[in-house]
Amino acid sequence: MSFGSPxxxxxxxxxHRPATLEEAIAxxxxxxxxxxxxxxxxxxxxxxxxxxxxxxxVIDMKGVAELKVVEEVPGRGxxxxxxATLEELLEEGKLKKxxxxxxxxxxxxxDPMIRRRATLVGNLCEAIPWVDSPPALIALDASxxxxxxxxxxxxxxxxxxxxxxxxxxxxxxxxxxxxxxxxRGRESAFEKFTAGSEFSxxxxxxxxxxxxxxxxxxxxxxxxxxxxxRCLEVEEEIKDGLTPASVRKAADAAYEKVExxxxxxxxxxxxKHLVKVITTKVLRRMMGR
Length: 289
Fold this sequence. Notes:
Layout: E1 14-16, H1 21-31, E2 35-38, H2 42-49, E3 57-60, E4 70-73, E5 77-81, H3 86-92, H4 100-107, H5 112-115, H6 120-126, H7 133-139, E6 143-148, E7 151-156, H8 157-160, E8 161-163, E9 166-167, E10 173-181, E11 186-194, E12 200-211, E13 214-222, E14 229-230, H9 232-238, H10 244-257, H11 268-287
Parallel strand pairs: 1-3, 2-3
Antiparallel strand pairs: 4-5, 5-10, 6-7, 6-10, 8-9, 11-12, 12-13, 13-14
Helix pairs in contact: 4-7, 9-10, 10-11
């Protein structure tokens, strides 16, 4: 998204391409707030052109081999390294079974050229309200693995995003991977509405879990609030299954309970209408499977 900047060039900066995580941590320790990590560079370069960010050191993480790993660990789930691109994830095909909501969300991001460059972790760490991966990841109960000067830690994606362009990450920490728990019997889907740009005006990610007596739902709305928002009332309506009646009640609950913001893309009342429309659409599609 352009914010009307007159700049066509980048500010001056020193470029670093570490080969290991240890080298990257050392660079962060040395340069602190003056450094920014770069995955695909799609968001960072745009922000730098707009002068919304002006780091004097850019640390390119694509040379760290261990960050390119995409693997499904039996009994644990999916682990996606920070340097894995969106297109690599879509080409793998591993996301289609059990992680469909993320596959659908990523397939709708921008265009193939951007997807070949952008990374999932980069998309997440931008923490822009209108991007598509955070709602899908929260619906899947995903977490991020973080490495810093004080060691490793983990954070749920739902808590990692604190606000617009605000994440729970210190200047000396690196997100090394996204981890998604395994769930047999999980079905999921993603729906979004756009208006003349790649960014969502409203989106919804749904995951239904049905493992014997364990039945639950996670419904997360994106682009309608500064941060992705779950709606427990919608989840309550659909946790026991999808029927025409439960879909109708869920859509009504979404309209009533999901708070929507005004911004440059849409008004709050318009988003309210869209929330009901996309909730109906995604649940009817899941019901028809």
